[in-house]
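Structure, all two chains, one model.
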Amino acid sequence: MAEQNQSTDKKMSRRRFIRNSSYVAGGLVGGGLIGGLIGSNLGNKNQDDAGTQGQQHENGAYQQAPLYFTNPEIFAVLVAATERIYPTDDTGPGANDLGAPFFIDHSLAGSWGNNTREYMQGPFYPGSNFQGYQSPLKRHEVFDTGLAALQRISNEKHDANFADLEGEQQDEILTSFQKDEVELKGVTSKTFFNILRQATIEGVYADPAYGGNTNMEGWKMKGFPGHQMSYYDKIESDEFMKIEPNSLHSYTK
Amino acid sequence: MAEKLPKTDVVIVGMGWAGSIIAAELGKEGLKVVGLERGKERGLKDYYVVHDELRYAIRYELMQDLSKETISFRNNMKERALPMRQLGSFLLGEGLGGAGVHWNGHSYRFLPYDFEIKSKTIEKYGDGKIKGLQLQDWGITYDELEPYFGMYEKVAGISGEDSHFGPERSIPYPTPPMKETPLTKKFKEAAKSLGMHPYHMPSANLSEPYENPYGAKLAGCQYCAFCERFGCEYGAKADPTVAVIPFVRETGNVDIRNYANVTEIIHEGGKATGVKFVDVLTKEEFIQPADMVVLTSYVMNNTRLLLQSKIGKPYDPNSGTGVIGKNYCYQILPGSTGFFEDEQFNTFMGAGALGATVDDYNGDNFDHSDLDFIHGGSISFNQSGARPIASNPVPTGTPNWGADFKAQSIKYYTRSLSVSAQGASMPTKNNYMDLDPTYKDAYGLPLLRLTYDFTDQDRNLYNYIGKIGDQIMLEMGANKVNERSNLESYDIVPYQTTHNTGGVIMGAEPETSAVNNYLQMWDAENVFVVGASAFAHNSGYNPTSTVGALSFRAAEGILKYSKEGGLLA
């Protein structure tokens, strides 16, 4: 039934598109890929109209499984740390509800976690503050080292796992990493913290295809409409616009 | 043992803007050309799923694979250079079309002042003004280069309008300027009320459909906000794979070979005889013999290939003699971010080169008599589309993580604007490139070593121009403008700009320059080296239009050389 609704909606959206399309057609003559894309783009928008978000969420949930981490206690450290970096509050969901830990897990299992497109030949030297990343460790090894250290320091200081600490205690430990006050092997604690921080933000705002930004909630909080084919008819307007976001998934529907 | 291929008239190394234009112009005239490109084939058909910030803008899908090749870097000669292990400060291109696929499209012509900077500065301010700078004239004037700017702009279809300080033009812009938005209007009104002369940014994202002299049909920009670091799925951004390469193929005289990474220029008796390359997929080696060799492989590779092949005299920073690797320049980029409490903007909409600019503080458009620097910069507002991973503006003093960061970055994502300057970069004796003694690429060849740091000229320019930007931002109505951090040492990590220049500079004399004003090497007359590597310094604008103009100039030179031979200038 859902399928039938979808195809009706798609037809409707194409009709609606043709009705409103003078602005786009005005700009387009070259051999772009626009034809196929616009139909599918609005197809997705319509699906939202039809209230099938729940189903999308369910599909997304299949992605929320570990592909890199094997130890639940260490994964819990990641969950707790990312949640402090981007917490749940009045503005909306935090890193954990947005699936950022799974985004990071998946990234560590792939090309990024293994630094495959980066120069990893030795010899290795620490370098100056201006020479960039010089660690011999790959990112997945940086996370192994850094997360284990968060856990160790938490146990040393508070006799409890990192995930079980109060928020303020967690912040204190994270801050000591950011300030480079913790000694790690092969990488500085500051470098680990910076990668963790950046990856958390990526997990919150990258396309949901990557396992985070659940249901595009990160984008919705920020007012970013995701993938839109055109603002040709909107960009001259003085009015601020709230636009329902679209994800990459709409390319393939 | 390398396999020897049949000889060709011309071999071109690198198929970005410069390589494509030269291939088109030579192929059109009937020369047989082989275009070698180390990256993969790509074109409009490959820009399908591009609205993905993570993949393209953060993970650099379209850029150089550093596991195969990078550079090493140090701030000064006393330091040990270490490899640039990850992309950051600049984003090197790779693949058909080069960085021309993922550029923003800002399309300015350099100023007449730029080409004669040394003479004009001394003439007006005296010798003392350029002390400590390794300043040179380019061996060509704006008037001489003007027709070639026109040729490039017609191919790219540039959308623009005349401006107060703009140099003379023999042709109008091929297409009208892009749309005026509430934000470009806001910038222009503020700049005008401060007595400046704003105009719409000249853009290679086209304002309307356009057919170029090569018969390529470009589309009109849709303002979708995925431009720099992305390919354009509409074919609305002038990109070599859309605007030039289809014609290159139509000539029937150009054989483009992908996955061909050139490792050496082979030469004998002061002339090149061809190039050696490795197929990066199969690892087989080939020799491509040719009557003429054209290097169009960006600043870094143009310099490295010459040093590796021992063509031209390497630059020696101790004596200031030699030319290959000399006058590496970058750009000085003060910005002003303003925060607005009562207004909210559609900052997520945009196009790469949608914006407005003032030149009142660029070049020698203002008096430098009492200033402690020369040149200046263009100051622009650019509505290129803010994306959520990269754009988290927060007022100074806000932590960069936690609840406050989250709330502020969400609030100001659509309530902050930036004005940014592109400041010129002047050459000095100690900023240069040579070969690294330690680190090697995937083929066992030495990496290029970059030695670079900012100078007092740079810092003085940065502080002065930055304050002008702040004034504009406040006049635009910002409640608060962020404090700018000081310009300390050059850092290879945060993205600044992919406007690297120099290394194989042009000029009027072989003692101080590597190529003449046809981009022909003084020391090897059948080798032409084209690109921003030829810039004797870097101006206060994006470099691409000037690279395009020099490419047409070089193509004319190569054709002339193929008939007459000898040094052309």
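Confidence is low (pLDDT under 50) at residues 1-27, 34-56 of chain A.
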